[in-house]
């Protein structure tokens, strides 16, 4: 029988809002921990902090979803995204299969863990993510990823729109845009939890111990 966990201590309310949760109705979503993004955001410490949580989550039987931003080199990018790529030396959308596009080995998917390939910041847009969540009857998402103000926030907003309870790991996300992380954490928690709640890796790891 699947173990039931008590709500996780988080801000601005104990997550999930609905109360007790299980690993059957919850997924850990690791967003865009790709080689180039990790290097640009200097996220090596974030990756190292997440690796033990990922191991514990897997050992407990938890479901893991990975996001990986990129585009099909045979198709190219839509005009707006192509213009963005050309104008920005950092945070580029990379062609699938390129070296920087790969997920770092410390957080790489294992057999049975789906990878959501998305071209823009919102991992729900143009992908099977919502279908996957519905098929598995997932109600709760735990987010960690890069960049905080980019794919992480965009995907959390979309998760909120489809009625999911979202928890963002404060030390499981980072960015290279000054001030952006704190701003997004505050927006996430605004009011009664505009887009979800936030907590630390240690608190979540203790919750599933």
UniProtKB/TrEMBL annotation:
<dbReference type="InterPro" id="IPR000868">
    <property type="entry name" value="Isochorismatase-like_dom"/>
</dbReference>
<dbReference type="InterPro" id="IPR036380">
    <property type="entry name" value="Isochorismatase-like_sf"/>
</dbReference>
<keyword id="KW-0378">Hydrolase</keyword>
<dbReference type="GO" id="GO:0016787">
    <property type="term" value="F:hydrolase activity"/>
</dbReference>
<dbReference type="Pfam" id="PF00857">
    <property type="entry name" value="Isochorismatase"/>
</dbReference>
<feature type="domain" description="Isochorismatase-like">
    <location>
        <begin position="26"/>
        <end position="175"/>
    </location>
</feature>
<protein>
    <submittedName>
        <fullName>Nicotinamidase-related amidase</fullName>
    </submittedName>
</protein>
<dbReference type="InterPro" id="IPR050272">
    <property type="entry name" value="Isochorismatase-like_hydrls"/>
</dbReference>
